[in-house]
């Protein structure tokens, strides 16, 4: 499991591209990327759960995103249990959100 934060804006397209690149390097990995746009005071969250982690541990991307984004007053969604995105209208509480994302998978 990899959870990280980048200061590269809160654009969904970029988040998807980052997850796609991570999955290419480690196909069995599950990833959560926080992307911060401090200028617009927004935080986005992007989760990709591997089929392996979904089957073995019941890990669900939407639940993972909602748990993490709650610390920021945000929420997420996704129709597929393997991918989800979320947004919050703040960057305050990012450390708590990262801790929540890590705790969810450990």
TrEMBL record:
Top-level division of the source organism's lineage: Eukaryota
Domain DHHA1: start-end pairs: 31-105
Gene Ontology MF, one: nucleic acid binding
Pfam families recorded: DHHA1 (PF02272)
InterPro entries with a match to the protein in the record: DHHA1_dom
Region forming the signal peptide: none
Protein name, as recorded: DHHA1 domain-containing protein
């Amino acid at each position: 499991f990899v959870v990280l934060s980048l200061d590269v804006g809160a654009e969904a397209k970029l988040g998807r591209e980052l997850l796609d690149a991570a999955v290419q390097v480690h196909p069995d990995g599950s990833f959560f990327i926080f992307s911060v746009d401090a200028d617009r005071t927004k935080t986005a969250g992007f989760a990709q759960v591997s089929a392996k982690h979904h089957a073995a541990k019941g890990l669900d991307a939407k639940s993972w995103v909602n748990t993490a984004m709650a610390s920021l007053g945000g929420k997420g969604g996704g129709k597929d249990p393997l991918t989800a995105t979320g947004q919050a209208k703040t960057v305050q509480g990012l450390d708590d959100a990262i801790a929540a994302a890590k705790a969810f998978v450990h």
